[in-house]
Amino acid sequence: MELLKTYLTKAYETKYPKMPWGSLKYLIGEVLYGGRAIDNFDRRVLRTYMDEYFGDYIFDTFQPFHFFVSP
Question: What CA–CA distance (Å, rounded) separates 68 from 16?
């Protein structure tokens, strides 16, 4: 988790224009949980969850788990 915190902090400080979803999916899916995905089915399930829950669309008000309130 410290790796994610460092990565996101650096992206924020450099005023990165878009959230780096591909990098975050890789860090979370492959680095943090990749060792626990023991076969191709587990990897597919993990990738499906990453695609479902990580993207700019999570800030859309029509998402069922909408949590972001614009200031």
Answer: 19
CA dist 51 and 71 (Å) reads: 27
What rounded mean pLDDT belongs to the chain? 75
Look at 19 and 66; give whichever has higher pLDDT.
19
DSSP of 3-66, one letter per residue? HHHHHHHHHHHTT-SS--HHHHHIIIIIIISGGG--SHHHHHHHHHHHHHHSSGGGG-TTSTT-
Q: How far apart are CA 15 and CA 3, in angstroms?
A: 19
